[in-house]
User: Which sequence fits this backbone?
């Protein structure tokens, strides 16, 4: 009996407690059937939201327009559901509006938008100018009859959206035009169009797209708008990835997806890493693949895109690593690899080869400039030596044996003094000179310059029978700087070094005159130059250049005519010559790779000039040449000089 009384007392106490707790229990599990707004005054969702109807629905609105600071809202594990049978309007689970940044804490919450109409159903709409960060959350969009969208980005200037640990599941009708779209970035509408530029940046960090594609649409008036969508996947998975006019960035993580479809899509990878796009099922469409250039060698065995059976994906791309470019190539297994193309130099390769060769180009031009002074004295009847100054310059185009093509635009000034000694059988000319020159170099996406200062000594012997011999020696100091701009946004690397050069030249020929003013000068010339080897670094990678040598031979003929203009003597002439660079072993090394930076081979030169004795004590001369060979073209190279004698 006592036990029965104790039982009844316990049951009664339990009933009283349950009765007293019922209101609180009911409040905790209450469901809002009317739309809810979260703003600066209310940042926490305190109950589930379920909205049903036959019109447009927005279950929860996050409004930041009236807030003077960024918002941090919390769904508190509550679910949000918007369901409507409306045909030509939207069903929205959550909508973000305003101009402030928003952090949405949606852990353990499911946001569902469900409908049966033909328009897109969106679990979340972001129509704001601020950045949006979503932590957690399961976003589901369902539409058995039309298209379904998980997250829709509609900010006029673009959105920056980060999804941390978020799941997106878009379940649309397969026959619909947009079907299932996980993330949909749209700018403009059919009515008002879009005239500006916009960029949507989407980051998936530990987030999963278990169904749906990433798609973008731009409705622009008169094509004035430019819309870019970047998908940056740091960690996570995509069950079925589809991109249209969009960019997927997998530089931070390997991405696994069941199927892959691309329409004018872009994939950004890091070819110096092992992060890849692994597609277990069918891959289709067209895809551009970019990887930022680097100085690192690329593993040609890494499949940066692996595909499943019956895939028809067409992927193209080029990047660079070390000394060469790498082309994206589909292997026999159907996967895509970056394969080294030894016929295409990288930016780094082009720069270090051009920087090795450019001082030699400048030094040879300085030697040609001095030779122009020796030629002018030989043609003059009044020049007994004196002081002289020359401007020289030219545009040069070169291609090295290592496939580095570069342009060099050189400008310089040379100043000298000499004296001429007459002898019974001819004359001697002895002099010294100094010059300053700068060459602006461009190659691929990179640029640099070479500044050179040189000192010269020269000696010429001319005989009365027409034979002449010219000799010269030079010493030069060259400072070289460059900005290596790696392709595909790989950044810019600075490089610089100094070197010294030593050169010598000998030229011999014969001057024939007919006594009526016509003269012909056949000649042969040989010049040699060596530049000291150098060591420097590109972004911590060692660069070594061996001693750079040039041995240049030239044989040609000058044909001119001497006539008087008043008291002046004028001698115009034409020049035709064949040249050959004999040196072909100039190696440069970047890290563990080396390449030949020589510019060897034959070329032809055609030119015209004039020498004038303006007065008994003043002369002037000018020449303009064009040179063309397999690996060299100087479309314009000239010298203008003036001399004063006494």
Assistant:
């Amino acid at each position: 009996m006592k036990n029965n009384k104790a039982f009844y007392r316990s049951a009664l106490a339990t009933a009283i407690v349950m009765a007293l707790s019922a209101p609180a229990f009911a409040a905790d599990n209450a469901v809002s059937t009317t739309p809810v707004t979260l703003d600066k005054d209310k940042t926490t969702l305190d109950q589930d939201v379920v909205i049903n109807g036959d019109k447009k629905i927005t279950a929860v609105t996050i409004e930041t327009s009236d807030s003077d600071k960024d918002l941090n809202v919390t769904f508190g594990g509550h679910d949000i559901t918007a369901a409507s049978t409306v045909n030509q309007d939207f069903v929205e689970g959550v909508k973000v509006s305003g101009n402030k940044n928003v952090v949405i804490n949606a852990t353990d919450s499911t946001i569902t938008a469900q409908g049966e109409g033909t328009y897109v159903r969106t679990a979340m709409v972001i129509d704001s100018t601020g950045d949006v960060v979503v932590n957690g959350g399961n976003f589901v969009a369902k539409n058995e009859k039309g298209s379904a969208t998980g997250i829709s980005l509609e900010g006029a200037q673009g959105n920056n959206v980060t999804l941390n640990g978020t799941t997106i599941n878009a379940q649309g009708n397969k026959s619909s035009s947009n079907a299932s779209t996980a993330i949909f970035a749209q700018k403009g509408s059919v009515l008002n169009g879009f005239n500006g530029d916009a960029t949507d940046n989407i980051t998936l960090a530990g987030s999963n797209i278990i169904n749906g594609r990433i798609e973008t649409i731009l409705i622009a008036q008169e094509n004035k708008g430019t819309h870019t969508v970047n998908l940056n996947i740091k960690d996570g998975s995509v069950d079925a990835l589809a991109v249209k006019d969009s960019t997927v960035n997998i530089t931070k993580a390997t991405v696994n997806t069941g199927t892959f479809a691309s329409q004018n899509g872009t994939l950004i990878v890091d070819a110096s890493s092992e992060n890849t796009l692994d597609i277990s099922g069918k891959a289709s469409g067209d895809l551009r693949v970019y990887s930022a250039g680097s100085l690192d060698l690329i593993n040609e065995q890494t499949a940066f895109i692996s595909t499943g059976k019956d895939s028809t994906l067409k992927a193209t791309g080029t990047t660079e690593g070390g000394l060469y470019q790498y082309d994206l190539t589909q292997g026999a297994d159907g996967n895509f690899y970056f394969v080294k193309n030894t016929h295409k130099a990288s930016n780094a390769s082009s720069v270090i080869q051009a920087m090795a060769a450019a001082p030699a180009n400048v030094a040879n031009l300085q030697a040609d400039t001095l030779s122009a002074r020796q030629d002018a004295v030989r043609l003059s009847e009044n020049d007994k030596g004196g002081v002289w100054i020359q401007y020289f310059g030219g545009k040069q185009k070169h291609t090295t044996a290592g496939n580095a093509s570069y342009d060099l635009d050189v400008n310089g000034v040379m100043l000298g003094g000499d004296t001429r000694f007459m002898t019974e059988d001819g004359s001697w000319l002895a002099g010294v000179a100094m010059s300053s020159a700068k060459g602006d170099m461009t190659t691929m996406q990179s640029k640099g310059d070479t500044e050179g200062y040189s000192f010269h000594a020269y000696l010429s012997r001319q005989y009365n029978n027409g034979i002449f011999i010219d000799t010269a020696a030079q010493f030069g100091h060259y400072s070289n700087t460059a900005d290596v701009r790696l392709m595909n946004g790989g950044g810019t690397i600075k490089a610089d070094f100094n070197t010294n050069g030593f050169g010598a030249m000998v030229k011999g020929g014969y001057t024939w005159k007919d006594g009526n003013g016509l003269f012909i000068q056949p000649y042969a010339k040989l010049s040699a130059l060596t530049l000291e080897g150098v060591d420097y670094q590109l972004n911590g990678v060692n660069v070594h250049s061996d001693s750079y040598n040039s041995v240049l031979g030239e044989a040609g003929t000058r044909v001119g005519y001497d006539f008087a203009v008043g008291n002046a003597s004028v001698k115009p002439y034409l020049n035709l010559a064949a040249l050959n660079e004999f040196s072909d072993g100039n190696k440069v090394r970047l890290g563990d790779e080396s390449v030949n930076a020589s510019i060897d081979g034959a070329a032809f030169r055609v030119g015209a000039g004039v020498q004038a004795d303006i007065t008994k004590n003043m002369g002037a001369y000018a020449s303009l040449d064009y040179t063309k060979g397999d690996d060299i073209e100087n479309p314009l190279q000239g010298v203008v000089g003036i001399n004063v004698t006494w």
About this structure: Helices lie at 2-28, 347-379. The chain has two helices and 46 strands.
